[in-house]
Amino acid sequence: MGSDRNLLYPLNTFYARRGLPLPPVAEISAAEIPQPYRQLLAGPHDMTPTLEAYHDDAIDLRVLERRLHEDTLTRLVVLIRESDQRPVEFGAIVIHLRHFPPHARRDVETGRFPLGSILARYHLQHHSCPQAFLRVHPDTLMQEALQLSEPAILYGRRNYLLTPQREVLADILEVLPPASM
């Protein structure tokens, strides 16, 4: 996980398609993440239910861009609070659809629900395995997606969701807005 390009995967694929430079990012330890970000990011938990509990609100999905290639769906997304549509996460995800039963796969492909909600709804067994923690200086794309009026240091993580057989179900970059949001 040493290079910036790997730290920001799969976000870097969307930036490359748009011809954008990657925002500055640094890998940090879980201990370096300030609260409340640490409680949200550090640990083997799924982000959607964690954000729902933290915000005491349901979480919706806004898909900014998507690409479907065979059994792989890649999305650039914003998770938003249902009550006020405020962004609570900016991210990019690669979802390996072959691991989903047909009804769950259809829900994933529609882009109407966060992946975490679908996994819970269909009781799909998986493990969340954080790979790296990040400090990011947001660029214009991130600032607009998170509705930031001014730049602020953001924190995030690279995370794998694994099947019980340890196959990658999803490869995710998750970046949180400032805690005051």
Give me the secondary-structure topology.
Layout: H1 4-7, H2 11-18, E1 25-28, H3 37-41, H4 47-55, E2 59-69, E3 72-81, E4 87-96, H5 102-110, H6 115-121, E5 127-136, H7 140-145, E6 154-162, E7 168-176
Antiparallel strand pairs: 1-5, 2-3, 3-4, 4-7, 5-6, 6-7
Detailed description of the structure:
- This protein has a 7-stranded antiparallel beta sheet with strand order 1-5-6-7-4-3-2.
- It has helices at 4-7, 11-18, 37-41, 47-55, 102-110, 115-121, 140-145; strands spanning 25-28, 59-69, 72-81, 87-96, 127-136, 154-162, 168-176.
- Strand 6 (154-162) and strand 7 form a beta hairpin.
- Helix content is 27%, strand content 35%.
- It is α+β, with helices and mostly antiparallel strands and 181 residues long.
- The chain starts with a helix and ends in a 5-residue tail after the last strand.
- It contains 7 helices and 7 strands; from the N terminus they run ααβααβββααβαββ.
- 33% of the residues are buried.
Based on the model shown, name its key terms.
181 residues, alpha+beta, 7-stranded antiparallel beta sheet, 7 helices, 27% helix, globular
- Total strands: 7
Helix percent reads: 25-40%
Q: Write down the overall mean pLDDT.
A: 94
Strand content: 25-35%
User: Helix count?
Assistant: 7
The Rg value, from CA coordinates, equals 15 Å
What's this entry about, in short?
The protein is α+β, with helices and mostly antiparallel strands. The protein is built from seven helices and seven strands; from the N terminus they run ααβααβββααβαββ. It starts with a helix and ends in a 5-residue tail after the last strand.
